TrEMBL record:
The lineage of its organism: Bacteria, Bacillati, Bacillota, Clostridia, Eubacteriales. Pfam families: M20_dimer, Peptidase_M20. Residues 217-313 form the Peptidase M20 dimerisation domain. The keyword 4Fe-4S does not apply. It comes from the Bacteria. Keywords: Hydrolase. Signal peptide: none annotated. This is M20 family metallo-hydrolase.
Length: 411
């Protein structure tokens, strides 16, 4: 088995050496020097394979193996290579390198195909740097404009727009690179589940029917700084204490909506001035609401807003809520689901129709072209963590299913 995956594993190791630190995992934040180095490495791999490479205004990379009939729409496969801080080795990168492996198999076997096949690397998928996710697929499908790129900034105040220009891209040409849906037959993404269900049920393949969407909030709380020894307890306007109540409120709202598979997370809390002997005058929270039920997500948003209002009023502090992004859950293509099911049955592979709690580039692609998301299990359901891992047999199974699906679509 290892021999059949030798080329795949070599490519994974090559890219995962970029941004890796022992005991710290992999950190390749979007448009960082590590991200750019990994992009260059993959472009060299593509060119060594004889593929044509195209790069658009936000850094999406498309490597193309031409089919016999250039007039036919193409089949697209891919994912992303940027990571969260101290992340794992498989989130995103698995789908890109699996796409490369599919083309390598076809090249070695000299497999004929009428449609062109593309491996795409979507730019800026993770929200870790700019608090805005799936930028590349949003740009490719016409879901964002230049003002969106200027609006979202990192912790140093650098916008996506500025970061793109700094890396040599031209985000002003955004509209030029929006795909024509008539020219894409289908999109496929292979990904680790990022949850425990497949491993727990001992099922090697998940076929996703619905993808959760995020609503992301930035909450600013303004109280009053005071001397920690001199200010009486009953006279304080402690922004951090208010934030702690809101954090618990966010969790309570999530628990109420859990029956509808909605989850709520406070992923970051920053305190100002952040000194041990000062009552915090300001606090900033970042909240992530996710779900596959739009009504449930809207109830969660309303519940969190009510909580913020009530806590702010009780503690006599000011609050401001900024919606960083708001998206709707999406359904994957029923025809694509049927096709992948038939391939799993042909290969005698156990599979499960399921939902994705995490967002992926597929959610944007599915709005304009028939799209599918294929999961393989990850050990312990762990992801966005340096302990993220998968079994080799599951990787092989996932690539086998991806390969057969691409072949069928590319006929």
């Amino acid at each position: 088995m290892i021999n059949t995956l030798e080329n795949f594993l070599n490519n994974m190791d090559k890219i995962n050496s970029i941004g890796f630190e022992e005991g710290q995992g992999v950190t390749r934040l979007a448009l960082s020097k590590e991200d750019m180095k990994a992009r260059d490495c993959l472009i060299r791999i593509f060119k060594d394979m004889g593929l044509a490479v195209k790069i658009d205004s936000v850094g999406n990379i498309r490597a193309i193996k031409e089919g016999r009939d250039k007039n036919l729409s193409s089949v697209m496969v891919g994912s992303h290579i940027d990571t969260v801080p101290n992340g794992g080795k498989f989130d995103g990168l698995l789908g890109v390198v699996a796409g490369i492996e599919v083309l390598n198999r076809m090249i070695k076997k000299n497999t004929p195909h009428s449609r062109s096949i593309e491996v795409v690397i979507f730019s800026i998928e993770e929200s870790s740097r700019f608090n805005f996710s799936t930028v590349g697929s949003k740009a490719m499908t016409g879901k964002i404009d230049v003002e969106d790129l200027k609006l979202h900034v990192d912790e140093n105040g650098i916008s996506i727009y500025e970061a793109l220009i700094d890396r040599g891209y031209n985000p002003n040409n955004l509209k030029k690179y929006i795909i024509n849906p008539q020219k894409i037959k289908a999109f496929l993404e292979l990904h680790i589940e990022q949850g425990p269900i497949l491993e727990k049920e001992n099922i090697p393949i998940g076929i996703v029917e619905a993808i959760a969407a995020p609503i992301r909030l930035q909450i600013e709380l303004e109280g009053e700084e005071a001397h920690s020894g001199g200010c009486p307890m009953n006279m304080r306007k402690d922004a951090l204490v208010a934030a702690s109540e809101i954090i618990l409120g966010v969790e309570e709202v999530g628990n109420k909506e859990a029956i509808y598979k909605t989850v709520t997370t406070t992923g970051n809390c920053r305190t100002f001035p952040g000194a041990i002997n000062v009552v915090p005058g300001k606090a900033e929270l970042f909240v992530d609401i996710r779900g596959i039920d739009g009504e449930s997500m809207r109830r969660a948003l309303k519940g969190i807003n009510n909580c913020i209002y009530n806590v702010s009023k009780k503690r006599n502090i000011k609050s401001h809520v900024k919606v960083l992004s708001r998206e709707e859950p999406v359904k994957c293509s029923e025809n694509m689901i049927k096709l992948i099911k038939s391939i799993c049955n042909k290969l005698n592979i156990r599979h499960k129709i399921m939902a994705s709690g995490a967002g992926h580039d597929t959610m944007n692609m599915s709005k304009v072209v028939p799209s599918a998301l294929i999961f393989i299990p990850c050990k312990g359901g762990i992801s966005h963590n340096m302990k993220e891992d998968v079994y080799l047999e599951h990787i092989k199974t996932g690539i086998d299913v991806l390969y057969e699906t691409v072949l069928e679509l590319a006929k």
